[in-house]
Amino acid sequence: ETGVTQSPTHLIKTRGQQVTLRCSSQSGHNTVSWYQQALGQGPQFIFQYYREEENGRGNFPPRFSGLQFPNYSSELNVNALELDDSALYLCASSPGTSGSGSYNEQFFGPGTRLTVL
Amino acid sequence: GENVEQHPSTLSVQEGDSAVIKCTYSDSASNYFPWYKQELGKRPQLIIDIRSNVGEKKDQRIAVTLNKTAKHFSLHITETQPEDSAVYFCAARGWGSYIPTFGRGTSLIVHP
Lengths: 117, 112
Fold this sequence. Notes:
The structure holds two protein chains of two kinds. By secondary structure, chain A is an all-beta fold. Chain A is 0% helix and 49% strand. Chain A has strands spanning 5-7, 10-13, 19-24, 31-37, 44-50, 53-57, 64-68, 74-78, 87-94, 107-108, 112-116. In chain A, strands 2, 4, 5, 6, 9, 10 and 11 form a seven-stranded mixed β-sheet that branches. In chain A, strands 1-3-8-7 form a four-stranded antiparallel β-sheet, with no helix packed on it. Chain A starts with a strand and ends with a strand. In chain B, strand 4 (30-38) and strand 5 form a beta hairpin. The N and C termini of chain B lie far apart (41 Å). Classes of the chains: A mainly beta, B mainly beta.
């Protein structure tokens, strides 16, 4: 067990709605990254948070936003949901920021399966 | 940005055979290459990684090779077992970069 947990496990929303996904990092990890994994695809990097600040962002629109809290848990918020947002959303925590030049291993959570109808 | 191509998309082997999955990358600045295994309905898990100052790394039945000149790296699994059946992802990342780029995955099926 890696210690990274996510909630909820599954979620069904309709187009235009907003959704919040949650991630609890592994103990001692101060960096969290979020990924979108569409069916049959590899994970696509959304953004990373380090000590409560966004530390990098992939090619996703501003309606994808996030937060990291002092206890290093994290949220991913998606506004104005679109059908193409249906995917598995993964968070991954690591003990240090990737931007520091380190190769810290990322530990993935089990994911949240989001379906947009 | 980085682009990672992974082949094949599906690989079917008999138990005991070897399996090879290949990835190419485009950004010569990339110098960290992890491989993940994702079983059906489960989270991706790191199985092996290699850094650019190393040409080959082995861990029991799993090995990874890296050719920086050609910008490709490969995962080798020997003596495959049914429990090796999963989707395998390669990824590439540069020093100081926080954006790993993943391949599209290879579905490995090991027939008993």
